[in-house]
Each structure stands twice: as structure tokens, then as C-alpha cells.
Amino acid sequence: MRKKNKLTEVTTDTLIGRGSTIEGKLECKANLRIEGKFQGEIDCGGQVIVGETGEAKSNIIGTDIIVAGKVIGDIVSQGRLTITSSGQVDGNVSVAKLVIIEGGLLNGSSHMEKASATVVPVKEKEKSSKKAVRTEAG
């Protein structure tokens, strides 16, 4: 019997290493780490990390973003932006959560909105199983 080949989508993290310089538009589904220099646009479906030796002259869109190096440009995230003690952001940020560790710099404005709450209905079985149990004295 012949087996069917199923193609599964496999993602690989992207690294821009120390000593590398890249210009252009970068789109990735996995995580991105920048230890070198990048200039252009970044649209990442995963986490973006700008390491201590990294520099990004770029607008960045990502799920969670950590800046330990330098970013010159705007940042948009549905998740968390963390600026470490060695990190610097020169630009505006629009994020759900913002963490700036002592020593970290944000030169720009910040805009934050709470993530929309999702209502999950409770099933009837769960309701009935939580009935109070009575004990009789005597």
C-alpha cells in the first residue's frame, strides 16, 4: 500500500548574526533574533529579540518583542514589549503590555489597549456537577 506524503509546515527561527548587515523587508512566521544590523521593515508572526549587539532601524510588528539593543522605529505588538536595562527604543510603541527594566530607554510615545476579553460559555454538565452537597446532623 502506498503512503501519502503529508507536507507539514515547519518553521525555523531566523538569526541575523553579529557582524551581519541586512536591508529590506523581512517577513517570518517563526522567531527572529537580531545580533547584527537590520534596516527596513519587520513583520514577524513569532517573537522578535534585538540582542545587546543588535541594531534595527525598522518598524517592527511581532507577537512579543524584547529589546536589549537599539531600535529606531515604531513597534506594534499584540503581546508584550520588554525593554531590558541595556535596551533603547527611539520611536512610538503600540502594545498590549509594556515592561521597561530600570536603565532601559523609550524615547517616544506609548499606546496601550487591553486585549479583548473572550467569554467562554459554561456547559450544563459543569453547572450540575458543582451543586452543593448537604450533610445531615444526627
What topology emerges from the helices and strands here?
Blueprint: E1 14-16, E2 21-28, E3 32-34, E4 37-44, E5 48-50, E6 55-62, E7 65-67, E8 70-72, E9 75-83, E10 88-90, E11 93-100, E12 105-107, E13 110-112, H1 124-129
Parallel strand pairs: 1-3, 2-4, 3-5, 4-6, 5-7, 6-8, 6-9, 7-9, 8-10, 9-11, 10-12, 11-13
- Give the structural class: mainly beta
Low-confidence runs: none
Number of strands: 13
Oligomer class = single chain
Radius of gyration: 22 Å
Q: In whole angstroms, how far apart are the ends?
A: 71 Å
Helical region count?
1
**Average pLDDT rating:** 84
Account of the 3D structure:
The chain is mainly β and about 140 residues long. Helix content is about 5%, strand content about 45%. The chain contains 1 helix and 13 strands; from the N terminus they run βββββββββββββα. Strands 1, 2, 3, 4, 5, 6, 7, 8, 9, 10, 11, 12 and 13 form a 13-stranded parallel β-sheet that branches. This is Polymer-forming cytoskeletal protein. It holds the Pfam family Bactofilin. InterPro entries: BacA/B.
In short:
The chain is 4% helix and 47% strand.
List keywords for this structure.
single chain, 138 residues, mainly beta, 13-stranded parallel beta sheet, 1 helix, 13 strands, 4% helix, globular
